[in-house]
Design brief:
Radius of gyration: 16 Å
Largest sheet: 2 strands, antiparallel
Number of domains: 1
Strand order of the largest sheet: 1-4
Distance between the termini: 26 Å
Length: 170
Amino acid sequence: LEALRGIAERAAGRLAEADEFDATRPERLTRQAAAQLGAQPGAAVLVHHGLTGEHLVVSADGRVRGVLGWTDSVVGDPAEDIAGLALSVGSPAAVRAATLAGYGARPCLRGLWLARCDTAVQLADALAGRSATDLPLLRTRLRRAWEPILLERVTELREDDGDGTDDAPG
C-alpha cells in the first residue's frame, strides 16, 4: 500500500493544482494509514474481482440488495470489492453493505483507501491525456470515494489481535 500511497499523493497534488481536488483531503493518505491498513494474514475471501455499478442491484433508497456476475470471482482481499462499491454507490453505502456482510473497520477503511488512491491516480492520468476514461465518470467516482463516513472519525486501528474478527465476516 505504501507504493500506491506515494503515487496517489503525487496525483492528488496534480489534481489540486488543476482545481479538481481539495488539497486538504490527502491527510488521510498517510504512511501510518498505509501500514495499519495492510491486508491481514488469513483475511482472504471470495471476491467479485471486477465490481462496478453494472453488477449491483440497488434499491430506490440506495441500499445494495445484490451483486451479479460472479464468473470471474477469486479468493482475495475483501477491500477490493468494498472499493468497487464505494466508487459505484458512495463510501457510506459501501461501508454499510460491507458492515452488514460482517466486515470490520480495517477492511472497510482499506477498501475506501484503495478507491481513493485509484481514482486520484486515474483522474490525474486522464487530465494529463494518459487515459481515455470519461472525465465526468472519474470525477463522480472521486467524489463518491471521498464521501466522509463516521467510521473514519471513530476508528482507532490497532494491530490485529490474532482472532481475525476485525477482518473476516462471521
